[in-house]
Structure formats: structure tokens, C-alpha cells
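Good morning C.,

I know you're traveling, so I'll keep this short. The sequence:
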Amino acid sequence: MPAPTDPAPATPARGGRRLRSAVITLALGGVLFAVGALGLAPQQTPTVASGPDTPRSTDATEGLRIRVRKLPTDPDGWSALGMAYVQQARSTSDAATYHRARTALRKSLALRPAGNFTAETGMGALESARHHFAEALTWARRATAANPYSAPAQGVLADALTQLGRYEDSYAAVQRMTDLRPDSSALARASYTWELRGNTARARDLMNKSLQAAGTPTEKAFALTHLATLALETGDPRTALDLAGTGLEALPGDAALLEARARAHTALGQPRQAVADFTAAVAGAPLPQYLLGLGDLQPRRRRPEPLAAERSGTVLAPARAGNHSHLPHPDRADGPRRTGTSRTGLIGMGIAGGLVPSPSALVVLLGAVALGRTAFGVLLVVGYGLGMAVTLTLAGLLLVRLRDRFEARADKYARLRAPFARLAGIGPAASAALVLAVGALLTLRAAAGPW
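The C-alpha cells, ready to paste straight into the viewer:
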């Protein structure tokens, strides 16, 4: 009976910005332990298995398909095929392949309903990859009950417990997995448990041991990816760049390594190389973290050049003494009045603002596609846009109404003009300070670890 191999969990790389590092640290567990176990390659969330290993993986899947066609009642063949599909789906982010994986694993369970711990572990890995962690925990407990000496089953159990916030139980499961089989995957999980507890030195030491124990290019690539991430977190982008480059030599085209190298290039002030690596990662797997990283590096649009008349000062220059200019002064009653935005225009602007795609909506849609819930993702994005449009429209109408009232009683509120003017001047700075304070608080809380 072919036993599936267990991957190391995957993590997304973080950039040099402290707030982004804090946010990604909180999301690290979701990504790291969502990968599951068994035949999954130890790559980053979800990672592209490209380069030289891709044909071999495809050939292996095709060989398993031939096997189940010849032996349609073999539960072990169906479970192995299901795990191969899970790995393939994680590599390509293809929701249809997740469905094939579920079908194959369910077929294995139908052929052997009791004691089929390989298929049960596979189902746990599948649910973890789809972020259904409660279901993953149920399957992992069934697998460990059927075979308490299965290291992959202990790994899936640890993944689900971590995602559900039960850290002490997950640490115990990782320890059991390491005791049963201290391979590259187990050591990678152990490394992450120490990273969660804030012991970066211990985490780096265990990940180096995982690298030494790596038996496949994908295991080696994963360990180097995580080591590069740790180097970036500790302010050493040059080492991160070298580690990512070494990993890409072992597994060319790996999206996780490309992301790690892109973030190292960014930290070193090399945006052109970073854009190239992010673009290559997106081409392999259009995942949210790669798209957002690429978007952050895109140059901002330059403001249009002023008109020649404006540059020469003939339009905006004040009238000199003796120059009877007929340009209207903004404070004169005979000058053109500033036209306010109409209510119809505000409604149109609100609807347009709600329909404009946003990074948050893009992340939601891509996440839904990756989880096989495309229709639900589209519905969420539509609801998000409609809600934003209604909110913007109502807020604009309220402000217009308040402005009209204030202007109608200008004489009564004349003494309030100066305080409101000062408030308008310090408002942006106060808002920025508030955002900075909240970000610093989140960063400190994230740096304090899970406890």
C-alpha cells in the first residue's frame, strides 16, 4: 500500500514594513498549517510546483489514474490518487482539481469504510487546504484513532488544532509527529511552533535541520523559503536573497521562492527585479499575496504637466500695481461662484465608487475561487460594491445637506469659521497619527506572540 508523503506546512513571505509583517504574522498560521499532510509538497501557501519536478508530478498522477482504471476496487489506489490531486490543486490553485481529489478520496472511503486512515488523513489535508479547519480536525481525529502511529495523521491534526487556536494541543501533536518520524516535514512544523512562541533562533535552527533532512527538491525549496522569510524578518535581506536564489536552483519557477526573492529585492531597493519576480509568481499562481505584492511596486501615476500659461504665471499671477486686470478675483461678488456638487452627481459618484474594484474585493474573490466557491465570491463582491455605493451616497448627501444649512446661516455661525478652519488644517495630521498609533499597537501585539 503506497503511503503518502507528508509535506511541511507553508507560509507566506513578509515584506520589510512593520505593519505588513504584523498582519502577515497573524495570517501565517492560516497559511502554514492549511497545507495539510501526506503527498502534499512542502511549499508556500499554495505554491506552484513548477520547473523540473512538474512533469514528474504529472506523470505520477497519470500513472495513478491508469492504476485505478485497471483496479477500480483498490482503495489504496484511490486514496493515493486523491492525495496526488490535492497536491496538484495546491500547486495550481485549481478548484476543479480539489473536486477531483474529494471524489477520489470518497471513492476510497466507500471501498474501505473502516480503518482507512490514509484516505481519512487525505480528507483532513484537503479540508485544511480549503480552510475548513473544523472538518479537518474531525478527519484527523478519525485517522489518528485508526492509526495513532501515523506521522502524517499527527501532522494534519496539528495543522487543524493550530488554526483553531488550540496551540498547546497542536504543540503536543507536532511533538508526537516528530517522535514518530523526525523528517523534514516534522522538523518544519516544529520550527513554526517555536516561531509562534517568539523564539526565532530556535525556529531557524530547526528549519536548518529540516533543510538537512530534505529528501526532495520541493522539501529543500520549502526550507529555504522559510529560512529566507526568517532572514527578512530579522532585517537581513541580503541573506534572504541568497537563500531564495539557492532554492530556485533546486526548484526553478517555484512561486513561493520567487515571492521571497521579490521581497528581498524590495528591501534592498531593487524594484525592477522585484517586479519581475512577482510577475513570474503571478503567472504561475495568481494568488492574492503575489498580486498585492506586485501592486505595491507599480509606479504611481504622475500628475499631468501644468499648462504653459500656468507655468509662465500669466493666468495665476496676481495683478501688479497699475495693471487693470479684468480677471475675476475669487473673493469678489462678480467673480465666478464655485459650483457645488449636485445631489444627482453625488449619487452617481457613490455608485461609481462602489463599483470600482478594490484590493479587498479582489482578495475575497480570489480566495473564493481558490476554495471552489466562485459564485459565492462573486455574490460577496457584488454585495460589497452595493454596500459601498449606498454608504458613499448617503454620506455625501448628508454632508451636502449640512453644508447648505451652514451656508444658509453663515452670519449666525460666523464666529465658528476660524475654529473650523483650524480643525480642517490639523484633521489630516490627526487622522494619520491615529492610524500610526493603531498600527503600532497591532505590531506590538503581534510581536508579543500568540500568548
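Safe travels,
E.
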